[in-house]
Amino acid sequence: MLNTISFKHNTTQILNILKNEVVFSLALILAIITSFFSFPKIEYIDFKVLFTLFNLMIIVGAFKDMKALDKIAIRLLTKFNNSRKISFILIFLTFFSSMLITNDVALITFVPLALIVSKRAKLNPMKLVIFQTLAANIGCALTPMGSPQNLFIFSYYKLTAFEFLEIMLPFVILGAIWLFILNLTQKNRKLDFNLDNVVIENKQTLLIFFALFLFILLSVFNIINYKLATMITILAVILLN
Q1: Per-residue DSSP letters for the chain?
Q2: CB–CB of 219/228 below 8 Å?
Q3: Domain limits of the chain?
Q4: What is the pTM of this model?
Q5: Tens digit of each residue's pLDDT, the chain (241 residues)
Q6: Cβ(146)–Cβ(98) under 8 Å?
């Protein structure tokens, strides 16, 4: 009896998760259906992309945990005192950071900051968050590590860094100009607010993670082997955190 109740409870939980994760559920169903027509093979998995993403996510997680990105953002924001300049900083912080730390992480990092700033300055954050979303998706297009899709395309077609940049640069420049124009259309207000200072407790560890980040970028551009980068990343994390 207890086993039956437990089974029903677990089944209900799984179904609730699948209902809430619509995209995942659809992808899973389609993957199962297509596997009958084209049987999955180990060759279909691009291990370089997966391991490189793994490495990047670990380093970005370390940066977030140590509040390094918050420190940079707040230092820049405290130097400006009107809404248009603040909006410009937040938009282009998201734009440029997405090139290195992926579009998702850039939004996760800087949208909360935009909401805090908007609340303290009594501004409506809706347009700013929309502009940040545009900025993240435009900015990330410039580099292979800007998004998982970029990394896959870069790896699958065996592009050089120059070829990738040459293809994407016109789009990114046009996007940056459009973001600048959009920001100019916003009403300008003088602001007066304080942001809590962020203290980085272990700067030496941060420097090591930054060096590791540069090392991983070398693996993205095939200068060093991604397997070596993965082993060093895992070892560093085990020793440091």
Answers
A1: -HHHHHHHHHHHHHHHHHHH-HHHHHHHHHHHHHHTTS---GGG--HHHHHHHHHHHHHHHHHHHTTHHHHHHHHHHTT--BHHHHHHHHHHHHHHHHHHH-HHHHHHHHHHHHHHHHHHHT---HHHHHHHHHHHHHHGGGSGGGSHHHHHHHHHTT--HHHHHHHHHHHHHHHHHHHHHHHHTS---B----------S-HHHHHHHHHHHHHHHHHHTTSS-HHHHHHHHHHHHHHH-
A2: yes
A3: 2-35, 45-240
A4: 0.70
A5: 556 666 677 788 888 888 888 888 899 899 889 888 888 888 878 888 888 888 888 888 888 888 887 777 777 777 777 888 889 989 999 999 899 888 887 887 788 888 877 877 777 889 999 999 999 999 999 999 888 889 888 888 888 888 999 999 999 999 999 999 999 988 888 876 666 777 788 889 999 999 998 898 888 888 889 999 999 999 999 998 8
A6: yes
The token pair at 126 is: 């809706």
Written as one letter, the residue type at 169 is L
Instruction: In whole angstroms, give the CA distance from residue 148 to residue 231.
Output: 20
